[in-house]
Design a protein that fits this description.
This protein has 213 residues and is of the alpha/beta class. The protein is built from four helices and 14 strands.
Length: 213
Amino acid sequence: MRAIIFANGQMESLPKGILPLKKDDLIIAADGGLRFCKQEGIVPQLIVGDLDSVNETQLSEMKHLGAQVIQYPVDKDATDLELSINAALDRGVKKIMILSALGARWDMTFSNVLLLALDSLDHAHVRLIDQNQEIFCMKGHEKIKLSHTKGSLLSLLPLSASVEGITLQGMKYPLNNESLYLGRSRGLSNIIMAPNASIQIQSGILLVCVTPY
């Protein structure tokens, strides 16, 4: 099972990467993200947040159609998106796809991206997805294979002071057991050149941004 969370950012239409929707998908609207569910004709199983950005008519309609509401006070210590991620984890979901989390407010956008580094997500596969890019996080000793097409743009951004032991295969600019450092721009704008491209790191926290070709 995977969770698809609609955040309260910007989105024109559903990204191709999540289609087709599956019967066992857990759909969660993070507060104002409910408007995207309405836009796409989707009834979420859960609506999570303080509901300060929700259209009351849409909320009533979704509740009537069976959506469960988990409401929090406005004065809280976590964003509606973080609470929605926790709701997915509480239900045993290990694959989480977050939509409409980028754009609108820069502070919220940065916060949404940094959520990928949460310790609670160490054993889950979480991605931020929009029409133009896919963002996920790598931690510690980890290796992943990329399924993106040749020509896709790849950028690597350290979230820790340094990321050590980076090895890139199948890229225009390969790395072999090298390091990237927080605030430096060396990891930007690589290009995937092979169908078996991969990223391996030995330590640190690395943000991976892929723009499909």
